C-alpha cells in the first residue's frame, strides 16, 4: 500500500494546520459589518452642516414657498468649514443638499427652486460642488442629506412621479460630485399638495445608490446605519450593533438591502436593547453547532446626531447658546464612548462660514479629548491572563495600540479575565475597552476592578462594548486593574484596553 504521509510527515502537517488555524484566530461570529459599515464606524466622528433657505429666514423647517433670492451668503467659504472640522478630528461632512423646503444647494436640472435662481455667485453658484471639492482636497469624506419630504415640489404625494423626480435628483448628486461616503435619508414624511401621502420607493432609491456609489452607507431611513433614537447626543448604555430582525421586518427594504442579515448563532436573543435569554458559560464556545437558539440577526449600528446649538440651522439669537465644553464632552463619552458614531451638526451662518463661537468650542473640545487620550497609562503594564485561544492572541494585544490585533481567551473559559500589573501606581479616571468588531460584537457584560489597599474593588461595570466603550469614573490610583467578561455572545474578544486621566 502506498502511504501518502509518513508518521513524522503526518505530524508535521498536523502542526502546520494547527499553526495556520492559530494564525487565523477566532472565527467571525455573525452578523459582522460589511467593509463599508466597518470603515464608517472607524471614522468615529463626522459632521453635519445644515445650510439653506432656513439660514436666511431664521426658521428650522421652511415651507417650500421661499424666494430663491433670499439665499445670498456674503462670504461663503467651504474651505473654512472643512479646515475647522478637520482640526477637530472629523472624517466626513454631510451637507443638507436639500432640506424639507425643497430648495436645492446645487443647480438641479429638475427644479427651478435652487441656487441657480439666487443672486449668490450671479446664479452660477453650486454649494454642493464647493463643499464636496473642499472635502476631497482636504482628505475629508463627503456625504449628502437629501430630504425625501419636499414641501416645494408639486409632484410630491403623486407617488410614482415624485419617486422619479427624487431619483433624478439623487442621480445628480451621486454622479457629479465625486465619491459620496454616506447618504442620509430623514424619515419625515408629510402630505403632498394633493393631500396624499407620498409612498417612497425605497427599493429604487437604495438600488440607485448601490449602483452609483457602492461604497456609501445609507443612513437613518436606510439599510446600513440606524438612528440612535434621540437628538440629544446620547446612545444607550447597552448599545448593540447586532439587531434582531422581527418577522415583519424581514420584508422591509431596510432589511432586504442590509447585506449582513443571517440566521445568527445566538446565546442571547437581542430584542432592542434587552438581553432576553441568558445561558451558562458552557455554551460560550463560539461554535454554532451546539447552540439551540437561532434568530435572524443583522448588523445595524447606531449614529448619534446632535447639534452644537439648540437648532439644526443657524440663528443669530443662538450665538451664545453653543453647547458648553462639558456638555460636548458628555456627548463624546455618551456617543463615541458607547459604540456609536457621533454626527455633530455645525450650522454655517448667513455669511456662509462656520461661526467663530462654534469653531472656538470645537477647538477646545478636541484639545480636551487629545489631552485625555494622549497617554494610555495601561501601556507600560504587564498583562496576565488565563488560558488563551492560541499564540498571538495573548494579553499583550490589549495594550499594543493596534485595534486590528486582539486578546482571545480559550474556549470554554468561565468568565475570562485579564489583569494589568503596572510598574508603579497610576491615577486615572477614564477606562477604555474595544472589540474587534469585524469579527462580530460579543461582550454583553463586564466588570473592572482595581486593587485598592489589600483587596479588589469594582470601579466600573457595563454591558456592551462594541467598537469602543469609554467609562468615566472617580479618580482611582492603583498599580493593578482586572477586567472580567461575565457575559458574551460566543467567545469574547477584546482589541484594546486603556486607562486615561482627564486634564484637571
Ligand atoms: C430631522 C429634521 O426634521 C430636522 O430638520 C433635521 O434635519 C434633523 C437632522 O432631522 O428629522
How would you describe this structure to a colleague?
- With 504 residues, the chain is of the alpha/beta class.
- It has ten helices and 19 strands.
- Helix 4 (78-87) runs parallel beside helix 5 and helix 6 runs parallel beside helix 7 (202-212).
- Strands 5-4-3-2-1-13-12-6 form an eight-stranded parallel sheet.
- The protein is globular.
- The chain has two domains: 35-371, Alpha-Beta Barrel (TIM Barrel); 382-500, Galactose-binding domain-like (Jelly Rolls, Sandwich).
- Mean pLDDT is 90; it is low at 1-22 and 269-292.
- Strand 9 and strand 10 form a beta hairpin.
- The chain has helices spanning 7-24, 35-43, 53-57, 78-87, 127-138, 159-176, 202-212, 253-256, 325-335, 356-373, and strands spanning 45-49, 92-98, 141-146, 182-185, 217-220, 226-227, 242-244, 262-265, 270-271, 274-275, 294-299, 302-307, 340-345, 382-385, 417-434, 443-452, 455-462, 469-488, 496-500.
Helices, strands, pairings?
Elements: H1 7-24, H2 35-43, E1 45-49, H3 53-57, H4 78-87, E2 92-98, H5 127-138, E3 141-146, H6 159-176, E4 182-185, H7 202-212, E5 217-220, E6 226-227, E7 242-244, H8 253-256, E8 262-265, E9 270-271, E10 274-275, E11 294-299, E12 302-307, H9 325-335, E13 340-345, H10 356-373, E14 382-385, E15 417-434, E16 443-452, E17 455-462, E18 469-488, E19 496-500
Parallel strand pairs: 1-2, 1-13, 2-3, 3-4, 4-5, 6-12, 12-13
Antiparallel strand pairs: 7-11, 8-11, 9-10, 14-15, 15-18, 15-19, 16-17, 16-18
Helix pairs in contact: 4-5, 6-7
First and last CA, distance: 78 Å
- Average per-residue pLDDT, rounded, comes to 90
CATH homologous superfamily classification of the largest domain: Glycosidases
CATH architecture of the largest domain: Alpha-Beta Barrel
Biggest sheet overview: 8 strands, parallel
Strand order of the largest sheet: 5-4-3-2-1-13-12-6
